[in-house]
Specification:
heterodimer; A: mainly alpha; Butyryl-CoA Dehydrogenase, subunit A, domain 3; B: mainly beta; 10-stranded mixed beta sheet; 6-stranded antiparallel beta sheet; globular
């Protein structure tokens, strides 16, 4: 059996073919799932700030992708198509202005990791970034999250946001500037 | 593929690097990843038994329903949270607002009179029952200012350790907050992490409790006695009340009480607390402290519980301010867990992640762990986050257990979680994964459930995949009815406080934003279909009262379009003979529903193959390729070979079991349908012809010709939110959980303020909590405070 996490970051040059196979072949879809799980999860956790909501949204994103795999025409990258779904799922989710679930409440899946120290530090760093991203304009935050957490190129981010690559670069640049000037994130990198 | 850089300032590059670093540290939980993959496969496949390794393509309509159910839940959530509450009058009079939701007839809304009735209150499309009295008091409450937490010094950490009787060496651990240091103290058995005097985590026997599994059957009295005794013996003399967590076995809270006796609550239904897990022997196995320090600000008037309840009842004309809501479902009460145990004094090999802590005293060696086990011996190059294959022995001396490493090496093994069913083969326990893999589970616990039947039951084995072997570490079992859980919240947050002594007028209520839930558009609306061939699927939604609603789905694909639609102007009786079979229709796409699904008004239909029936066919499979497409060729016992397709005519390249295994398929063979010169077999269900567990023939029956009957609760068009019952109404002191607040020198002071807490259960078992800001309006600003989530 393939292990789950090993192949997440494989290159995507065959993904249009894989997506076509996935219409009829769940194994092909599973391959796409493994490749893109991390980017989708990271995207959602950056927005929500907590793993449980991120897991719910990640599930919804991939279920919707499975349902709609036929609509992927291969005009852009599969990653951009998938992150577009993730973005829509996230928008629906936040209509209710959900506050977050504390990270420690998300422990439905047992972990053999040491329960504190590094894991806690990672949680805190993530929480801090997620909080800072909520303090800048949503459009700039979305560009930053798609770029840095979703791992999309500026061109791919532009496809998701329906903007030009240059506009995305500007959003990212301004977003970074906002984070530096308007949030406490700068204190953490000095 | 990672992003290009586009920054104008070095400082921005630092921020960018920070984002990238945090992103790269973020990984989905491996168990979640496995469960979701399984769920996705289940969405496409239907299981007929534990020995069936790969199954038929499920109805797209069923998949659609699953999606719609999810959407329905999300929408319900959103709609609920957009429903607002009345605002106080503009003249600052803290009386009841003019606009109120109509209340049930016969219920008197004078204070304390809103008692529960059989009918309850119409509330968010369901019924709200009030099953607790609304308190008459207090009329006043205090406001406190949070004292910012200070990182512990080594001396303070040592003091906390002494409280727990830990006489061990001290080590530096990465702080929970950036650029801070926490301390870890261990005597080899007990372990303590100290961030500050208020925030620390204690483990009574770190090596023995990887998963911190709590007791399931403790009596309340026993738990209370154990907690009181534990805290008293360690000098914790604050006032507290004990509550049991509803979702996690053996987890209890000692909730801090303020001087006036009211408890402190953070966000998401979590109190300020000492959180304790009681083990199977009834003793405390872990303590997680999140206490606070504070100073008094003053005493202020609060609204009555009745006024707060009216705000809970809400009014759809205004946005709900001063309210925080949360709900939680699921929990771990039904699940069972097993951890792998290892013998003492016997050379074994384990896989795990190395953690190393530097000593405070430089003369001491670093403290090394492999997973949760204290590692000693040959650990010369220990550094954090390495995955190793370690050979050595466990030893126990003076109640302390450690793993003495003889040698270790970095490993290519990967952490994994495999879902499947355990069975016995001779004296071995074997995991047969849902994907057809077979793994020996060495030293399996004697009481793990065998021959579980997915998907009602789920069993997951976690561990490491090393050289095709599954080296297990944990087993989880989710019996029928288990709930993987979830949660959410709503409300718009609390107002900022105005403690200046001068009231600030509030504006008139703000209209709620329009819902985004408008029917989706479909570019196909108006399109006329002339003898359009597709596949019919019938779902029947069955209500508890026996009512049934048939839904007719039609899937068709041409070079121009792929269309999923529902059919109107047809009846169950006339279409039933064609379930899951080709159908030609004439009609017009009249509209699209809220989710964009086209709705076809049917003028006429014909069955292109009258009498076409499903068959059970035995045969073998092999992989092949036709015109560059991977396919599965199915050869029946009569020697005829087919190309396998899914029920909606997609190529199906999956294999059940291993290539060459004899399989049984529930299939439809449509005359004249070919692919690459092969006839086509549409596979609706597939399983091994022989049960691998007992060698017996595996039965299969034809079911694809029957409608899919589903509980009406799955019907997205008739989703009804659950009723809710308020079981507790109390005044609490609220502040956002300060545990994860990052240092911000310019931050405004955080206040601890009174709030009315309404807590209870929904009829689906979810726990909910609604916090209503209790200070009178004269002590509030119209501006909402920035809500800082605890995550």
């Amino acid at each position: 059996m393939d292990t789950l996490m090993a192949r997440i970051n494989e290159p995507d040059n065959d993904e249009a073919d894989l997506a076509r196979q996935a219409i009829a072949d769940i194994d092909a879809f599973a391959e796409l799932y493994r490749r893109h799980l991390t980017r989708v999860y990271r995207y959602h956790v950056a927005h929500t700030g907590n793993p449980k909501d991120a897991e719910d949204l990640t599930s919804q994103t991939f279920i919707a992708a499975l349902e709609g795999i036929r609509s992927f025409r291969g005009a852009g990258s599969f990653a951009a198509w998938l992150m577009g779904i993730a973005s829509r799922k996230r928008l629906m989710f936040f209509r209710g202005k959900k506050p977050d679930i504390p990270l420690e409440e998300a422990a439905h899946y047992p972990s053999s990791d040491p329960p504190t120290d590094k894991a806690a530090n990672r949680r805190l760093q993530l929480a801090s970034v997620a909080r800072a991203l909520r303090q800048i304009s949503p459009e700039r935050a979305e560009a930053l999250i798609l770029t840095y957490f979703g791992g999309l190129s500026h061109a791919e981010t532009g496809r998701v946001l329906n903007k030009t690559e240059a506009a995305v670069k500007m959003l990212v640049s301004r977003g970074l500037q906002d984070l530096r000037e308007r949030t406490s994130l700068a204190l953490e990198v000095e | 593929m990672m992003n290009e850089q586009f920054t104008n300032d070095d400082r921005d590059e630092d921020i960018a690097r920070k984002l990238k670093d945090v992103a790269e540290q973020t990984q989905a939980n491996v168990h979640f990843a496995a469960a979701l993959e399984e769920r996705l496969r289940d969405t496409r496949t239907q299981k007929t038994g534990p020995f069936t390794s790969r199954f038929r393509q499920i109805s797209p309509a069923v998949r659609w329903v699953a999606l719609m159910l999810l959407l329905g839940l999300v929408l319900s959530w959103s709609i609920r949270n957009l429903i607002p509450a009345p605002q106080p009058a503009a003249d600052n009079t803290p009386g009841l607002p003019d606009i109120l939701t109509p209340t049930p007839e016969g219920i008197d809304l004078t204070p304390t009179a809103a008692v529960p009735t059989e009918n309850g209150y119409d509330w968010r499309g369901a019924t709200l029952f009030l099953a607790a009295p609304l308190p008459d008091v207090p009329a006043e409450a205090n406001v406190y200012r949070l004292t910012p937490d200070q990182p512990a010094t080594a001396e303070e950490a040592r003091f906390v350790a002494q409280r727990f009787g830990i006489d061990g060496d001290m080590y530096r651990a990465p702080g929970e907050l950036p650029d801070t240091t926490s301390y870890m103290i261990s005597d080899g058995r007990q372990r303590l992490y100290v961030r500050s005097r208020n925030y620390f985590t204690y483990y009574a026997d770190y090596n023995a409790n990887t998963l911190l599994l709590g007791a399931r059957d403790l009596s309340e009295d026993d738990a209370r006695t154990a907690i009181d005794s534990f805290l008293s013996a360690r000098g914790f003399d604050f006032d507290y009340q004990i509550e049991k967590d509803e979702g996690i076995p053996g987890l209890y809270y000692a909730i801090l009480l303020m001087p006036d006796g009211h408890p402190i609550h953070f966000d998401y239904n979590m109190p300020s607390r000492l959180q304790m897990t009681l083990g199977k022997d009834g003793q405390i196995i872990s303590v997680d402290s999140s206490q606070i320090d504070y100073e008094m600000v003053g005493t202020y008037g609060v609204r009555s519980a009745e006024e707060a309840f009216q705000q809970v009842l809400g009014n759809p004309e205004v946005i709900q301010n001063g309210v925080l809501e949360s709900s939680r479902s699921g929990g771990m009460l039904n699940e069972s867990y097993w951890e792998r145990s290892y013998p003492d004094d016997k050379t074994i090999t384990i896989y795990g992640r190395v953690t190393s802590f530097d000593p405070v005293d430089p003369a001491k060696p670093p403290f090394v762990s492999i997973n949760s086990y204290t590692a000693t011996g040959n650990t010369p190059t220990a550094s954090g986050d390495q995955l190793v294959e370690a050979t050595g022995q466990f030893h126990t001396a003076n109640g302390m257990r450690s793993f003495e490493v003889e040698s270790w090496k970095l490993t290519d093994a990967t952490e994994t979680a495999v879902m499947g069913s355990l069975t016995r083969e001779g004296n071995q326990t074997v995991l047969i994964s849902d994907l057809g893999g077979k793994y020996v589970i060495a030293d399996a616990p004697a009481d793990v459930p065998l021959d579980t039947v997915p998907p009602d039951e789920q069993l997951m084995v976690g561990g490491f995949m090393a050289n095709e072997d599954l080296v297990w570490t944990t087993i989880q079992y989710f019996p029928t009815g288990s709930n993987f859980g979830g949660g959410g919240g709503g409300g718009t947050g609390f107002h900022k406080l105005n403690l200046s002594g001068t009231a600030v007028p509030f504006s008139t209520p703000t209209a709620a934003p329009e819902s985004n839930q408008t029917p989706a558009e479909s570019p196909l609306v108006g399109k006329h279909l002339e003898k359009q061939r597709g596949t019919l699927t019938i779902n029947i939604y069955k209500g508890e009262d026996g009512t049934q609603r048939p839904e007719f789905s039609f899937i068709t694909q041409t070079q121009e379009m792929y269309l999923y639609a529902t059919l109107e102007n047809v009846s169950l009786e006339e279409l039933l003979p064609y379930q899951n079979r080709p159908l030609d229709i004439w009609g017009t796409v009249e509209t699209a529903d809220a989710y964009g699904t086209a709705v076809i008004s049917v003028d006429k239909f014909e069955a292109p193959y009258p009498g076409l029936a499903f068959q059970l066919i035995k045969g073998t499979q092999k992989n092949s390729e036709i015109d560059g497409n991977p396919v599965t060729l199915f050869t029946a016992e009569d020697g005829k070979t087919y190309v396998q397709m899914t029920r909606d005519n997609g190529l199906d390249s999956s294999i059940a079991g291993e290539v060459g295994d004899q399989v049984l398929v529930e299939a439809l063979i449509i005359p004249d349908q070919t692919f690459g010169n092969y006839p086509v077999v549409q596979v609706f269900a597939i399983g091994l012809a022989t049960n691998p567990m007992n060698g017996e023939p595996a039965p299969m029956t034809i079911t694809a010709d029957q409608p899919y009957v589903m509980d009406a609760s799955l019907d997205p068009t008739t989703y009804v939110p659950p009723n809710s019952t308020i079981e507790t109404v109390e005044l609490v002191y609220y502040l956002p959980d300060p545990r994860y607040a990052t240092p911000d020198t310019g931050a405004e002071p955080q206040y601890i303020q009174p709030a009315w807490r309404f807590a209870g259960h929904n009829s689906n078992g979810d726990v909910f909590e609604i916090l209503v800001q209790a200070l009178k309006e004269e002590y509030l600003l119209p501006e909402l405070d920035t809500y800082t989530p605890p995550g």
